[in-house]
């Protein structure tokens, strides 16, 4: 009974950590990486861009990173499912 209790607690905590990393941490890190060039005013990529072009570029980059983080989250969850399947 103690072993089963520890096993269930371990699976719950690992699932919780996997879900947080897959959903939130990857998204926040992605947005931080995308925002660095936009916060640097001397970046040559955006020196001659208008405000609307900057926002459009930021929005497109953010959406791509959001999709990438969702894909990485799916990979993490698929790895967990493969581990369960192999067991």
UniProtKB/TrEMBL annotation:
Pfam families: ABC_membrane_2. InterPro entries: ABC1_TM_dom. Keywords: ATP-binding, Membrane, Nucleotide-binding, Transmembrane, Transmembrane helix. Residues 1-39 form the ABC transmembrane type-1 domain. One of its GO terms (molecular function) is ATP binding. The chain crosses the membrane at residues 20-39. This is ATP-binding cassette sub- D member 3. It comes from Characodon lateralis. The gene is ABCD3_2.
């Amino acid at each position: 009974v103690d072993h089963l209790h520890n096993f269930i607690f371990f699976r719950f905590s690992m699932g919780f950590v996997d879900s947080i990393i897959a959903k939130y941490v990857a998204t926040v890190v992605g947005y931080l990486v995308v925002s660095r060039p936009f916060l640097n005013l001397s970046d040559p990529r955006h020196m001659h861009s208008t405000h609307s072009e900057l926002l459009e570029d930021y929005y497109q980059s953010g959406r791509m990173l959001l999709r990438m983080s969702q894909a990485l989250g799916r990979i993490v969850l698929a790895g967990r499912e493969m581990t369960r399947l192999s067991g």
